[in-house]
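--- STAGE predict ---
source: upstream dedup step, 1 unique chain passed
mode: sequence only
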Amino acid sequence: MPIIASAHEDGHIRIYDIPSNPSTTTSEVKPKETHFAHPSPITSLTLSPASPTEMISASTTCVMRVWDLVKGVSVQDIESHRGKGGEGITSVEGHPDLPIMASSGADGVVRLWSAA
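--- STAGE serialize ---
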């Protein structure tokens, strides 16, 4: 499933198919799906280390969401970190070889999560 996912300040995630025609210009590529993911700016987006068909988004509201890319729905919310200065979660990263991920927040805390 070759896709590109982008996260935006308006709280939306946009999913694009990768064009099979190399001569396709960027103006011709339109999102195939748009999801209202968070009620505030999305600060991080990563693939889930638990499954290649899941991704994780994070926002300034201190919530991480796990997304099923096949169904196009959110399957889990994880509340984490404490907001500070209008910021929440600043980064989420999945490990490429292990079922763990890390999140960092404006509260100065780094958390490790089991993605299994």
